[in-house]
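fyi for ur records
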Amino acid sequence: MTRARPARGVEFLAGTAHYGSMKAWIITLCATLAILLGVGVWLYRDLQGLGAEAARLGAEAHRLGDEVKRLEGELSRSSNEISRLSAAVNSARAEEAAKARGEIDGLKGRIGELESRLADSEKRAGDLAARLADTEGKARVAEVGRADAERTALDDRRMAREVERRRTLQKAELERKLAQEKEDLQKRLAREKTDLERRLIEARKRAEVAIGQREDRIEVSVASRILFRSGSDRLLPEGMDILQELAKTAAGDDREIHVVGHSDDLPIRRQYRDRFPTNWDLAAARATAAARYLIEACKIPAGRLVVHSHGPTRPVAPNDTEEGRARNRRIEIAFVPAGSTAR
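which gave:
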């Protein structure tokens, strides 16, 4: 059986209707896609804006975090400063309180002292009043004897003037006697000096002896070369003669005889050093030898002799020439009143 085919016109109409339906759907789909695309673009742009805003907010949050940390640090420092100031204030208050308590205690003590002194003053005032009354009574009694006392005082003043007059006369007489004794002493020393110069004229001509007079003493300087050989403390015969003449000057009195050794500043020669290590030792030995001769040979009492050594420390001339050194090598003998100190 053969199937009947639809007519060609009917197929065309059906196809046309189906194409129209598809076209409408495609248009709708394209419109929907266009809308979705627009929405997507808008969302993308909005997302970018939100990302930038999020970055800005993050930076702001980081800045705010730093600011918070800074504020926290300042808050901590402020808290420490507040604590320090509070401690200082408390300490100051404690010191002020202690000072105030001390001042109060001091004032209390001062008040007690003043009260005690006031009581003592009142007591003394009472005692003084009683003494005043007693004194007034005694004054009346004393008034009676005042005339006698004035007469006695007048007699005492006359006696004091007489004592002062006698004392003045005695002082003047003593000064006159002292002046006379000093003058007599100077004359006697001048005679002794002249006598010594006469007896030692030959040695003086050779500049081996110098004689001087100073205040209360005769001073004789004898060159070492006339007394000793070089480096020796053994007296030469000529030196002994000089000492004999000098001993005659003090034989009849009690004056002290000061014997002083001097030297130059040249080092002691090697062959003499075992015995005289220094110039001081040599000068001391020579002064001792001269003093021993005065005692043993001239019979001068040992108690009148005083021996010193100055070595090279008291030159009378520069030590840079032989002549000056010869003048410095000397023995000085001084005749001084008993008890005097050697120069």
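The chain has six helices and five strands. thats all i got for now
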